[in-house]
Amino acid sequence: MLQLPHDLADEMVAHCLRGLPDEACGLLTGSLEEARVERLNLSENLAHSAKVYTLDPKVHLRADREAEDDGLAVIGVFHSHTHTDAYPSPTDVAQAPDPTWHYVIVSLRESIPAIRSFAISDGRVAEEEVQLVESTQVDGPAR
Amino acid sequence: MSVSIRLPTVLRPHVGGQAVVEVGGATIGEVLTTLVAAHPGLSGQVISEDGQLNKFVNIYVNDDDVRYMEQLATPVSDGDEISILPAVAGGA
């Protein structure tokens, strides 16, 4: 199961919509033990493609350092599928870099975006529940 | 000359679970060769079998990607921080 605060789910979908017609991507920083996302690290899709994505390695380096400073870790990646279901493609499976990561896919195929999360290990895909939780951000915008 | 190499989670089991390993060398190539020699489980993970940088990793000297410098010939200085990160990509 992946715990995703509401506001970060909104931010993720907004980033994916802004990226259209191309796929969009970003990293998930949080607690690996609790499987909880604490912040997103939005990236440009360096592939500028509607079919593939390449995360900006500089975003990854910065995310990794900031996570370490905060006692967190990069725990996964999200990207959009613009015209297909929110399910890992063969390319996604073949290129999955870390079996401990959460692979979140935002499908923009329907008018209501769908967010699903998967574990990918040794070429096997296992879907996990995405639980939308309350935000714990204290310094976020007033609501 | 000694530099610190920060490894991604996925490679840490090959270095006894450490996040950072101190290694000597004058270039990225030397440093990585020494790292792999000391931890053979990393063989093929960082430098591919043809002796080039594995395309599934990105390697940084401090803030700079070695692919845009001199690749494996990129010089390193005492105290440099080397980061190895998996390339993150995929597609529909």
**Cα-to-Cα separation, first versus last residue of chain A:** 27 Å
**Numbering strands along the chain, what is their spatial order in the largest sheet of chain B?**
2-1-5-3-4
CATH architectural grouping of chain B:
Roll
Instruction: Kindly provide the name of the CATH class of chain B.
Output: Alpha Beta
**Which secondary-structure class do the elements of chain A indicate?**
alpha/beta
Query: How many strands of chain B?
Result: 6
Average residue-wise pLDDT of chain A: 93
Q: Which CATH architecture of chain A is right?
A: 3-Layer(aba) Sandwich
What's the Cα radius of gyration of chain A? 14 Å
Q: Which chain pair shows the most residues in contact?
A: A-B, 33 and 18 residues
Order of helices and strands of chain B: EEHEEEE
Return the CATH class of chain A. Answer: Alpha Beta
Which fold does the CATH topology of chain A refer to? Cytidine Deaminase, domain 2
Q: Report the average pLDDT across residues of chain B.
A: 92
Number of structural units classed as domains of chain A: 1
How would you sum up this structure, described in words?
The complex is a heterodimer of chains A (143) and B (92). Chain A has 143 residues and is an alpha/beta fold. Chain A has a single domain, classed as Cytidine Deaminase, domain 2, CATH 3.40.140. Chain A is built from 3 helices and 9 strands. Chain A has helices at residues 6-19, 57-69, 90-94, and strands at 2-5, 25-31, 36-43, 52-54, 73-81, 102-107, 114-121, 124-128, 130-133. In chain A, strands 3-2-5-6-7-8 form a 6-stranded mixed β-sheet. In chain A, strands 1-9 form a two-stranded parallel ribbon. In chain A, strand 5, helix 3 (90-94) and strand 6 form a beta-alpha-beta unit. Chain B has 92 residues and is α+β, with helices and mostly antiparallel strands. Chain B has a single domain, classed as Beta-grasp domain (Ubiquitin-like (UB roll)), CATH 3.10.20. In chain B, 12% of the residues lie in helices and 28% in strands. Chain B has one helix spanning 28-38; strands at 2-6, 20-24, 57-61, 64-65, 81-86, 89-91. In chain B, strand 3 (57-61) and strand 4 form a beta hairpin. The longest helix of chain B is centred in the middle third of the chain and has 11 residues, at 28-38. The termini of chain B are far apart. The relative contact order of chain B is 0.25. The model of chain B has no long low-confidence stretch (mean pLDDT 92). The interface between A and B is medium-sized, with 33 and 18 residues. Strand 4 (52-54) of chain A pairs antiparallel with strand 6 (89-91) of chain B, so a sheet runs across the interface.
